[in-house]
Fold:
Amino acid sequence: MLTAGAAALLAALGLVSPPVAGAATASAPDAFSETAQQQIAALQAVKAGRTAAESKVDSKLLVAEKGVGKQLNALQSGATVSPAGTVLVDIRASKVSPDLLAGLTKAGAGIRAVSDRYGSVRAEVPLAKVGEIAARGDVKRVEQADQAMTARELATPATTPEKTETKQQKADRIAGELQKAVSAKSQRSAAAAAPLVSEGDRAHNADLARQQFGVTGVGVKACALSDGVDSLAASQAKGELPPDVDVIAGQEGDGDEGTAMLEIIHDLAPRAALGFASAFNSDASFADNIRKLRFESHCDVIVDDVIYFKESPFQDWIIAQAVNDVTADGALYFSSAGNEGNVASGTAGHWEGDFVDSGKSVGKFAGTAHNFAGAAGNQIYEPISNASSAGVPVTLHWSDPLGASANDYDLYLLNSAGAVVSFSQDVQNGAQDPYERVTTPAFGGTGLRLAIVKFSGANRYLSLSALRGRFSDSADGLKAYNTPGVTVGHSAARDAFSVAAAPAAKAFGRALEPGDPANPAGPYPGSFSGATKAERFTSDGPRRVFYEANGTPITPGNVSSTGGEVRNKPEITAADGVQTSVSGFNPFFGTSAAAPHAAAIAALVLSGNPGLPPAEVREALINTAIDIETPGRDNFTGAGVILADKVLAYTGASPQPLVVAKQPTVTPADGGSALDPGDTAKVTLPVTNDGDGTAVSTSVVLTSPTPGVTVAPRSKSYGTISPGQTGVNDFTITVPASQQLGVPVVLNARVTFAGAHSPTTTSFSLPVGTPSPVAKDFAYAGAPVFIPDNSPVGASVTIPVSGVGRASKVSLSVDGTTCSTDPTSTTVGLNHSYVGDLVGTLTAPSGAKATVFQRNGGSGKNLCKVVFADNAAAAFSTVTSANAPFTGTWRPTQALTGNLAGAAVDGTWTFAVVDAAGGDDGFIRSVALHINGFVQPAAAGAPSNVRGVTNNGPVHPQ
Structure:
């Protein structure tokens, strides 16, 4: 229903009952019809009548809230409103404070993602509360949630409705695939089929390169960001991925493109360590996760295949800034160039250039339309191809600094009858971003066209992109205008590698549009050569940029087509159209598949050249690329397609040893089972060469920072150790009688050898004292705590612990009295309708944290009488929905004792649960800690248990 203000504005314009499309006054195809003039005037009336708070609201949300769109013929507000009357928004704030989160929750918001660094909250909020939220002093903007897409090219065109799986159907499918993989693994013989290998391994000569240079990725950690890793466990069970993929807790995501990307990396660099985080929780969360992968997970090579629509072509925004941060720290960053087409192949849907005033004003308010024809004529519309018009995001950016645009441009989508179909007309008055976006109808249309209107301000350089659409001449005489340069955002960051795609094997299976030329095929089982052709959909560059990341102009006073800097993007080309074991990704097309191939080759380079500066890696990749398409460097394949053997030869790669100290065995001289204060003990220390090359002149220096502890001898030689082999030596340690019971002795093993990875340092904590066989129990005694659906805020309970001191063992139980799969049960320890959504963590009084469970169990319901103990035979990560309700004893995701018992355990512990996916909720009801302390030592013969932690960056002991 119209608000009184909106109704009055429309009435004043005579637009309460606007003319229907068929009654539109006839006009030339390059002129606004009477209908369009009236619609735009009505929309501008809403814009002109905004309050200060409403000026902070996305124009589409505001029109939806006021109900104006319903009164204007053919108009879609563009705001996606749920049946419950909610909208997904990004709230940009001066600071994310507890007060802001509490205020949002009070307004009925469901929190979806929070970024403290970037002052951003993604939330599902009632549309009726948007204005109230915008009126807060700490809120800068309330925007329709910034959307993203991966660079996977779908075998089915967008005009074909997809069969969407329900959450339960997906869970059942993945559980079935996992069970099939586990069964096959248990029956597998030596003659069983090998795992699937990407054809890109052969096409890039990576298989020959590994054999010729003896490098496998060892010593390097390669990490991916995409939608999700739903089928990670199934891929691991099939042997397609290693068992130790490092996924940031709570950032597992939703989807499987990440799984497919990891399989590609593993195919080419099989001994590189792997990691993952989702890029799809929000734009700010994506930026946060890029930084986490480098600064917390220590990834050396990072790759993504995602573009957020708001990413500016003209200035490095928050995602590109995160890329800049990690590349400045030495990481190599690869990103898909995109599948938005290129001018050379006739598949583009991008125009950029200076604003040209058409002289055609719009409506009763300010505004003149842009002339796309420029000096060649006067045309105010850019026509969209009918065959590529379904659900296309169209972005408009202009050359103002982010967060400081004082020049106001608007974007309109019209149909062939001259009626406005969609619009974007945010306010830009000095504190906003230079950005507008519309989306074409879900099933497309005939004769759709775009118009850019300068509402107020100065002329600026414009960028108009129909992402996965195409600008084509219309049937009624409109000419399409395309220019190169659709590659935007973080893929265009200075030190990122933007990666184009060329097929490794079979051609992409459908015409991009009816009547298009045939798609090229790849060389498999041969390798790429100068005859290789790029995918017709791969995006082109270059990228003109006007501002540094902080908003400083690159060419002060000139933000036109002659200003700024031009970045040559994309840089390189790699394989797509390859096989993976992941359902829906065989074959896997798009620059989404190309980027991980390039990243994997970079991992091989670092593996064979540890410490090689990023500038030299860049030089090697570009200088050895095989020129394809247009002779010389071109704007859609860069320097050409890369070959692993040529890159490794250029860098002089060689197999590198990587020797790491492994967990020692401690045998007290008195024959006791534990290391006690005053003991002397033999320490048997194995060191293993986990590298590709032979380690010579290997020696170990063993020291202890624990006061009073002596180690003899201080060093020992281990000689030559071949790859995969282990050397062993004995040391003697003496523990002072004054050593406090339960306070561990710390040993630092520094291993030196001839090689670039030398030295490696590993620390071990040796428990002192005999573990008590009796556990003390500490239970949560409060009321049930609600676990909010799909919210990083989560739920937590506290458990006070006293009278223990130091712990020898920590376990956690989720209790209950009567177990069932009733998701509303009050007799289980944790009731939830989809346990696979949950991430559980346990935090000690010291602040140390361990992940207990991480998105395990699929659609299974409820935890009841389940114990998480480090010595359990099976890991909770192996459970499926068939195990529900989850009971018994399971190994947690991360060791509880090893991670949480390094300090005194008396104090307040916190058990927290986050629901990381939508559609389900539950309660924490009954949980307890079980902690064993120490007793006075008693003689026994068995060696004691020791726990080890490696802390030397790129070394990852198995």
